[in-house]
Amino acid sequence: MSETTQNRQAHRVFAGVALAIMLGALEITLLMPTISRLGEMFDSPRLAPLLVSSYLFSMTLTMPVYGRLSDRFGRTPCLMAALALFTLGSLTSTLTDSLPVLLATRLLTGLGGGGLIALSFAVIADVIPPRQVGRYQGLISTLFAVSSVAGPLLGAFIMAHFDWRWLFLFKLPLGLLAMGISYWALKDLGHKGARSAPDNLGIILLLLAGIGWGLSTNTAELLPALTTLQPALLAGAIMLSLVLLVQQWRHPNPVLPLRLLSGRLLSIAFLLLALSEGVRLGLLVYLPLALEQHQGMSPDNTSRVLLWFILSVTAGTFISGKRIAHQGLCRPFPWAGGVLLGVGSLLLLALFSRWLNGSWLYVGLITSGTGIGFLIVSCSIAVQNALPSQQLGAGLALMNFCRSLGGTLGVIWLGWQYQQQLADWSTPVYGSLAGYGVVCLLLGFIMPDKELGNQAKHQPES
Predict the structure, then answer these.
(1) 190 with 126: CB under 8 angstroms?
(2) 82 Cα distance to chain centroid
(3) pLDDT tens-digit readout, 248-284
(4) Strands (DSSP E) found in 90-242
(5) Quick check: 374 and 447 in contact, CB under 8 A?
(6) Are 48 and 168 in contact (CB under 8 A)?
(7) Using N-to-C axis directions, what is the helix angle for 130-161 and 299-327, rounded to 10°?
């Protein structure tokens, strides 16, 4: 295949998935500034935070399912189904008149949102060789960064000037447009599917275990009458999870290909992505709180400070992506990213523990952000390069699942520390973030490397 043809196909792929990625990233942060207002409008302030977490829960849970189904039935049909569910969820959200029903429609939207992220990465990996994908990683990260920043701004603007239903209504034409563009751009690109043993039991166990964890950790909000049974619900979730792990390890084509984690490269790369996502989300949530409470900054000023962090993550992805494409190896970016993240997180710990003055804030943020950017690109490319072609969709979905799960569990742990020590929470919270960073530093040094391939995993038909 000529370089011109390969570049043309790469451009088509990005045209096909760009809007899907943007919608998936935008939805994560869109409702964050509207939670308290929606809680007041529906007279259910305790349920309102679940408007965000319900979408994240459903999105994370369905990522592995989409990956496995796309290996069997093809990327484009599964992406069309995901976009249809996402759009349908947005439509039903505009028709609700109570918060419990709105939570159900958010779960439906998340069923589609999981496919938008997981399948977009899989299509890219199908068509673009691992050595060349780094050149485009900066575009993906920029799209994510812009969408993540635009989400809260757009949500606040809509709530201030329009009816709350426009939070969901404006996505209907975008969802339909994304379906049309994706079908046109990807109809003859990407994996077409292959026969394999289905893992229906694994999918059912995964969904049941996820529902069990969701109910057991939110019993007081969702099922107040069953609060006394919360320990039993938690025990049931643990048992289902253990059964799921055993079943997945034994199945020849599992929805969660856990045997991939027996390889040193993949296991370290997955762990680095999970930990770095925990630091990224932790800083996005707790940096504004620390700056407002301890340094008296206004929300506008904290947003400007946070922008330096977001831009440094994007810069790290651009730099590492270009260099990896040029040299054909992921090193030195796993260990360089680990060092930068470890040093940056320690600087932030020292700053908020009042061992350093405020002039070190930007140094810590930029260092941490650049390190996270290095890790995102180098680990993602290393995983894509190491995965067998027949498990590409499931493997990349597992990567995104681990990364999302790592971020979610990390923020839950930080939230518990915040609630335990409300008076002086910054030291334990930033101590945990520093711990994540130091572990990344150590893992980056021991992560093995492998020369990147020059062939796409699934060559498009000529």
Answers:
(1) yes
(2) 16
(3) 888 888 888 888 888 888 899 999 999 998 888 888 7
(4) none
(5) no
(6) no
(7) 160
